[in-house]
Amino acid sequence: MENLLLKVNLQSFMPLTPFHLGPALLLGLIFFSFLDFPTFLVANVIVDFKPILVMFLDLNYPLHGFFHLFLGGTLVALLLAFVMNKIRGKFSTLLRFFKLEQKSSFRSILLASLSGVYVHILLDSRMHTDIRPFYPLDFNPFLSSSTLPRLWVHMLCVWCFMGAAVV
How many Å apart are CA 79 and CA 100, to the nearest integer? Predict the structure, then answer.
C-alpha cells in the first residue's frame, strides 16, 4: 500500500473525482435551467471510473485511455444519458431535500451528459500527457508541460467548488 501511495503524485490526483465536482457543481447551478443537474454531476466524474480502478488496483494499464477521448467520452455520455433517463426519478427526493427540484427531459439529460463528459476531458487534457482527446490524431493541443497550469487547474476546481457553495 505504501508503494501505491508513493506512486500517486499531484498530477495523478485529478482522477480522484472530488476535483471535478467543483466545476460540475458551479456550472450545473449556473446552467440549471438547461442541464439536468444530477446527470451533469455524474457525467463530470464517470469518466474517471477506469483511472480509479487502475490506481487503486495497481493495474498495469495506462491511467487514461479511450474514455478520455472525445470519441470514447461521447459513447460514455450517450450510455449515461439513456441510463439516467430511466432512473432519473429516483433522485427526486434527494433533489427536493436540497431544494434543487427541476423538470427533466431527455434533451436536458443528453445535454448534461455530453457537456459534463466534455468538461471533464478538457480539464484532464490540460494536465495529463497520456490523453489524446482528438484520437486518432496523435496530439493534445490543450496540454501544458509546465507545473503552473497544472496547479492552476487544481485551483480552478477548488475555486469553482467555493463558488458553487456561494451560488
Answer: 24
Could you give the C-alpha distances from 161 to 21, 46, 130, in angstroms and in order? 7, 18, 26
- Tell me: the pLDDT tens digits for 102-119? 988 999 999 999 999 999
| Per-residue pLDDT tens digits for 64-98 | 888 889 999 999 999 999 999 999 988 888 888 88
Question: Is pTM beyond 0.85 here?
Answer: no
* Opening angle at CA 109, ends 51 and 13, nearest 5: 20
Q: Which three cell numbers stand for residue 74?
A: 461521447
Angle at 69 between CA 17 and CA 66, to 5 degrees: 85
Tell me the domain boundaries of the chain: 12-161
Please say whether the beta carbons of 87 and 42 come within 8 A: no
